[in-house]
Amino acid sequence: MLITAAIVTGIGLGSMYGLLALGFYITYSVSGTVNFSQGSSMMLGAVLAYAFVVTWGWYPPLGLLTALLLCGAYGIAVKRFAVRPFVRRDSNAWLMATVAVGILVDNLVLFTFGKEPRRFPSQLAEMPVSIADVGVYPLQLVVPVVCLGLAAALHVISRRTKYGKPLLAVVQNPDAARLMGINVAGAIAASFAISTVFAGIAGILIAPLFNVNSDMGTLFGIKAFAVAILGGITSAWGVMLAGLVFGVLEALVTVLFGSVYTQIVMFALIIVALALMPNGLLGKAGVKKV
Amino acid sequence: MEEINAKGGILGGRKIVLLRRDDESNPSKGLIAARELIQREKVAALFGGLDTPVSLAIVPLANAEKVPFMGTWAAGTPITRNGANPNFVFRVSAVDEAIVKYSVKHYSAKNPGMILVNNPWGESNEQGLKKALTAANMKHAGVEKFEGNELDVVPQLSRLKNSGADVLYLVGNVGSSSQVVKSLDKMAWKVPIVSHWGPAGGRFTELAGPSAANVHFVQTYSFFGDLSPTGKRVLDMLMKKYPDYKGPGDITPAVGVANACDAAHLVAFAIQAAGSTDGDKVREGFYKIQNYDGLIKKYARPFTPQNHDAVTADDYVWTQFINDQIIPIKH
Q1: Cβ-contact A62, A235 below 8 angstroms
Q2: Which of B51, B154, B171, B205 has the highest number of chain A CBs within 10 A, making it the mutation to test binding with A?
Q3: I need a labelling partner for A120 at 20 to 30 A (CA). Which of A30, B245, B280, B300 fits?
């Protein structure tokens, strides 16, 4: 019973970590950079959706869609103002710049949205249902399905469509891709937009299970980055798998050893896992031909 | 403070001026703000806020700079019992141990489990509760921690349930406490919850749902029921000053208002008794306060060199959320 509860809880949590971590995968794969404000992007999705749907009473699909579009625009802005200027100068300062953008956004939301957490109502998070004698909200069952569906869609689009293949070309050789007429800057901007939209979806999915507040993404962002590294940041399936493994292990460690040890054990396990598998669960070492 | 100033101020007509800084619930920012207030603004006394970690960060500074620090909310035991000599930290607020007495008296608790936020506030409560349990010759089912942003607390609660917890001691702010209540709902575990006053600080019923009413939490004051003459006077004053206040239910959080109101008067008395704003003399001034008919109670020598907490367990009010209002529990 204890173990079953942990596994059910862990799958729900892990799929959310995975979804957020997919954002790290997308930008890293296309541009070799990551958006460290991914946790803030998640929070932004939830806060914007709350503002449109709950505060202003918009028709929910319209409110959610608008929130996600704004998340995408935010991703493009992060790329334009916090990443590109530094990458152009071969500087790694985008690392700090994206962290700073996240802190800036968290504080702007704190001042405008307020400090008090708010409830995001959803019929899928009202009455728990029992699965194998473990109570879960229906939304907890929807989350893994949506996350795995998005990972699959990302895989298919990037491998098999005319919109995805240019992204792969940019990953392999940006200069050659540019010579072939591919809009490299546009592809990278698209990758940032997709990553923040994914984070926004994660925020909207989590909001009814959690509370909407300005720092709801902080802990998630850190764990999602750990998951991205653990999965091998160059593999979408690796990242999703790592999210599920991390979520389930986290819940299992808590029920078996106690919550006092959860963070210590989890982050120690990540170090051990990376020492044994430096490229993560499904990642591959980069090959550079000279 | 307006009330004190309207009566002529202190020290022969000097008016009290309130300078405010936002600690953002962040110990580092709280410490920076406190340093600025002490060193640049030269304040006569500091008033602390909601968060124990922030207050614990400020305590060493207040003692080193010899500036009286009055706690108006944060309830961590080591804030006032900080080991410093001389100790410049005083408080008008609750301390941790009352939870154990209440759980035994009303739920016949024999094997309580602790579910505590994973920060210095939770840490200080763990120590205080364990001490109180030892004093009551009781064992406990275990101690589980959760992060302030924890999404699902089912694993921690499952452990406590498995260990036979008959009552839960909850320490967390409004958001995290609501996650505990929602996780209990998912588990369909109907266990009594005795809580610190974290849930009082916001929209607990909105966040936790109908089961919010299952959480019984400590308060130092309620504006509901038969009010003392001081209570009626303060309620009238607040309703005149803030037109949005239509009744006692609108004064939220009542405990913060009541603690701060009495704390401001006691600080003024201490400065008056000191005859100066010199920190060390004001500290001595606190010990000279004799009787004061305050909002929370009639204080009689509220502070001594051995006791820097003006409010004790006998003064607490136990409450629950009924809809959006904090209502005293009648047993």
Answers
A1: no
A2: B154
A3: B245
